[in-house]
Amino acid sequence: MSTAPMPEFPAGFRWGVSTSAHQIEGAATADGRGPSIWDTFAHSPGRISDGSSGAVACDHYHRHTEDVALLAGLGVDAYRFSIAWPRVQPGGSGVANAAGLDFYDRLVDDLLAAGIDPVATLYHWDLPQPLEDAGGWLNRDTAARFAEYADLTAARLGDRVRLWITLNEPFIHMSLGYGMGVHAPGQMLLFDAFPVAHHQLLGHGLAVAALRANSASPVAIANNYSPVRVLGDSDADRAAGAAYEALHNRLFTDPLLGRGYPEMPGLDPGVVHPGDLETIAAPIDVLGVNYYNPTGVRAAEEGSPLPFDLVPLDGYPRTAFDWPVAPDGLRDLLGWLRDTYGDALPPIEITESGCAYDDVPDAHGQVADPDRIAYLDGHLRALRAAIDDGVDVRGYFVWSLLDNWEWAEGFTKRFGLVHVDYATQRRTPKSSYTWLRDVLAASRDGSAR
């Protein structure tokens, strides 16, 4: 970690933290909530590394008042949470479940009372199981159902939510959930998963219209990006890097910004109907950027089903997920977005950035996490450098407020600024919480450190 003073950020820069519904809420059957694909997936033997589920998670549904107090103590400007589609529409269609929306109504009001902007994500991978039974995101009708859900939710909360995010990381949901089968719903379609990409983006475009009809607040999407590091000097290596960049970074950005789809294997133009690309390219106010690490790529070995091989990057510290800690990748990524999309690029907010470590309370119950502090320090400095490079970045959200249920890894990976004892639900702020609190306080009084 640098000992130099933390550079100041522009006036009005938005500081926040992020969570997602299925990872923290619990209360899996409370107040009429229906099953999601993750409920089904977690109850399939062998799918979750520790055999757990998100049925209780962090019990945020019953403890949100305590968690809002933690947010207020941290001093953030905004809280990015997601709304559980199965809690609002248990069957994935039809009238809203009033009791489900009541919870988010209370959460939003409590955030505003604490002076914290509610930033609501409509979809963080928890598709209602009845929609998956009808084909999930492979089915074009799911895009229409998503727009209906967006309309119902914004009609209730649109006067108070300060920023709407339609989808979280549609690339990860497509690739891990439908392409490789390691996330819900567990399908292994490889490049035949392209309809999932298109229908998510179509749902996004339809939801933008629904949100604007009900709310004057800005609208965004949160994409996962990974700068590509080509390992090798051959034409085949460079072609592999371009193929991976098209898949990971451009597939969910080019069409959003009016460029249509990039050329890539498995892209079936028959899935795209007349008018779809215009719907997808409806203007957005913010591009959410989720950044965790760069990706090493080289030419695929003969017989590989993919046009690239992914290879580890040496020379970086590693997180508990074995991801490289590479703040330089964030600066590179933001420069790539600026150079690639130019004037078509909307203002950016970093909607997720964080790291997992094996944080354990000491004999006094305190949790020191110096590696997370070093991670945040490095990434904030890289972000400030990107702003100095001319990239229009207006916010940074840490993933995550709480240790949580980490999808297929269950409770084995801890990303939180706050430690959660899952047996007792006791919350203990880590040293990174205190560090970030002090950074934010200093940034407000003009003496950033």
Q: Explain this structure to me?
A:
- The structure is a single chain.
- Helices cover 37% and strands 15% of the residues.
- The radius of gyration is 21 Å and the shape is globular.
- The chain has one domain (14-432): TIM Barrel.
- An eight-stranded parallel barrel has the order 1-2-3-4-5-7-10-11, surrounded by four helices.
- Helix 8 (170-179) runs antiparallel to helix 9 (194-214), helix 12 packs parallel to helix 13 and helix 13 packs parallel to helix 14 (431-444).
- Strand 12 and strand 13 form a beta hairpin.
- It is built from 14 helices and 13 strands.
- This is Beta-glucosidase.
Number of helices: 14
Order of helices and strands: EHHHEHHEHHEHHEEHHEEEHEHEEEH
Domain module tally: 1
CATH superfamily membership, which one? Glycosidases
Low-pLDDT windows of residues: none
- Number of E strands: 13
- Indicate the proportion of strand residues: 5-15%
The CATH architecture name reads Alpha-Beta Barrel
Identify the strand order in the major beta sheet.
1-2-3-4-5-7-10-11
Q: What is the approximate shape?
A: globular
Pfam family, one: Glyco_hydro_1
InterPro entries: GH, GH_1_N_CS, Glyco_hydro_1, Glyco_hydro_1_beta-glucosidase
Keywords: Carbohydrate metabolism, Cellulose degradation, Glycosidase, Hydrolase, Polysaccharide degradation
Protein name: Beta-glucosidase
Quickly list its features:
3-stranded mixed sheet, 8-stranded parallel barrel, 14 helices, globular, TIM Barrel, alpha/beta, cellulose degradation
